[in-house]
Amino acid sequence: MSDERILLQAAEWAMRQNMESLDEQDFHALEQWLQIDPRHADALAEAERVWAMTAELPPLPPLRVARTLPAVPAAPVRPRRPRRQARWGAAAASILAVCLGFFATEELPPLLADYRTATGETRVVQLDDGSRIHLGSHAALDVAYDREIRRVKLLRGEALFEPAPVNAGEPRPFIVENAGGRSEALGTRFLVRDEGSAGTWVGILEHRVAVSLDQQRIELEQGQTVRYSSAFGIRRLDENPERAADWSRGVLEFRQEPLAHALERIGTFRPGLLKLLDSEQADTPVSGLLHLDNLDDGLDRMAAQHGLKVVRLPGIALLVK
Asked: Which of 225, 244, 263 is the last residue of a domain?
């Protein structure tokens, strides 16, 4: 199914959830739609965000959390009622137009990337020169090798790079580009993360990396990290790159971190939205080791340790008392 068709369906579901009361049969149909394709949950979450941000549309009503529906076997979704489809067609098209505008300006390059991952997916890419790239969740990159440079463009998300070393047989430097900056490997393993408007984060796991932006250039040693942006240049950080690379080992590790920060990070590795409804718990320190292949179980245990429970609804998981 095309991305445009998925966005249209997600827009319609977002409209129906926010403008009418769905019955149990509707919820079952939505559950089935979410199970058909892993892209559906991401599309629904994006449509809901667009709904909330679009000033021309009414605000979101209070979310009613009554119960979680039991999982149902995948089955053909019942035909849509023609009158309802017509009723929501124009409104769904409005959300779709905004979604497509967003994708055209921000998301089209990742969709056409040489390598990309879905939310919750990690992947190891082996390049022809022997370099290895670990792609994190919801990441995308292009490989643009030429005669002079082994260039990789990080378009979205984060990736851990293990470049083949420069030697007599491979004289070309290995460079990762993101947001106008360059990270040149000097015999190393390193992590680069696109943080959007916050900048680009770079952490060195082994050896050295030269980070450059405009006229600035800084060489980093193992264990060092920086964040760069055209707004503030290159700034050194006091952060542990090994901890930031935990996902490449199949886990997420938390050591006395605020619950809100932990949930934000967990949310990047699971589809849909993850929200904490009790704002008083946001700064509660949490510790734990969550396995990416069983993330929801780890989330349940973390919540229970702090007197919370996870309520799962289509496209969203809520932490409530």
From this structure: 244
